[in-house]
Amino acid sequence: MTPPRITGTFLDEITHDIPSQNWGQEEWAREFALYRAIGIDTVILIRAGYRDRCVFPSRTVPNLRPVYDDLAEMFLGLSEENGIQLFFGLYDSGLGWKSGNWVHDIELNLAFIDEVAERYGRWPSFAGWYLPHETSRYNETVVQLINTLSPVCKRALDLPVLVSPFPHGVKQFGAGAHPLDMARREWERLFAETEGSIDICAFQDGQLEYSELPAFFELIAQIAAQRGFRLWSNLESFDRDMPIKFPPADWRNLRYKLEAANGQVEKIVTFEFAHFLSPNSSDPSARHLFRRYCEFADLAPEIGIDQTGV
Is 59 exposed, middle or buried (0-12, 13-18, 19+ CB in 10 A)? Predict the structure, then answer.
């Protein structure tokens, strides 16, 4: 039996809480060639814009810092060269994470979506949209955002819409974490009210205790079957258990999460290969994690592991 494999990754180029690796065309070309070699067929640009930064010189995002390179064009081109599909993340103002109010982002993204479609819709590798405004529970503004922006995305380019929420788990919320029965109520309500607006949901897996994951995956799989969206796992390849932010995951934990998701989800993607799992990462621990993953997934003979620079 083929072991579970990671077949997609987020691209965190405009980083929020992990450091930039300062890669350019050459480094990203090497990384995308590696993705092709190990069976990664999907990349998700986690956000095209964040606060005053953007991956291209947008005319719809105000007060941008200077944009020196069109990274969206580069990523779409590298995806095309390597037979990879790219989901394009929208703009995130950063204002809603504490307030829970994403109204500003809804308004700005209405124009941003059209701009993205106009600039990049010609690329065959442009395979879907990603809404980067995450939530851990039912939230009326998030429901409004999804139900407003998803149809706008599909009118601009009729492609699947992906979201990646996260459990209201103990690792982030401590004593305020949601038990499974409360999680069921929250997610059943959110997905009922967004039915038809979400095509794919990739739940993050790092906020729960490891022992809670199988039951949570089973719960979300039941809701996905009821509401008609495709279910992926967003496997976090960084470690939330250490007192520092954020080292590559312990291989034993990564393997557990891979196996917990296997059979419950259609696809396993990760946040985020380039920083935490790539042999090209600036963090040496990521290279060792890559070796352990390749050994487990029977990938070393396919990629010529000695040639990866590990």
Answer: exposed
Least confident of 102-106, 110-114, 217-221, 282-286: 102-106
State the helix-helix crossing angle for 71-82 and 25-38, rounded to 10 degrees.
30
pLDDT in tens, 137-174: 999 999 999 999 999 999 999 999 999 999 999 999 99
Chain-centroid distance of CA 191 in Å reads: 19
Q: Answer whether residue 309 shows pLDDT above 80.
A: no
Q: Does the model's pTM come out above 0.70?
A: yes
Taking the mean position of all CA atoms in its chain, how far away is CA 307?
A: 28
Name the least confident of 48-52, 163-167, 184-188, 296-300: 296-300
Q: The sheet that has 91-92: what strands, in order across it?
A: 53-54, 49-50, 91-92
- Residue 9 phi/psi, 5-degree rounding, is -145, 150
SS3 238: strand
Q: How many residues does the chain have?
A: 310
Q: Where are the alpha helices (DSSP H) in 39-100?
A: 71-82, 96-99
Quote the tokens at residue 73.
Answer: 């064009």
Contact (Cβ atoms closer than 8 angstroms) between residue 299 and residue 35: no
Q: Using alpha carbons, select from 278, 287, 283 the residue that is nearest to residue 38.
A: 278
Q: Average pLDDT of the chain?
A: 95
Q: Hey, what are 118's tokens?
A: 């106009």
- Going through the chain in order, the beta strands assigned E by DSSP cover 8-11, 42-45, 49-50, 53-54, 85-89, 91-92, 126-130, 161-163, 200-204, 230-236, 267-271
Coil, strand or helix at 8: strand
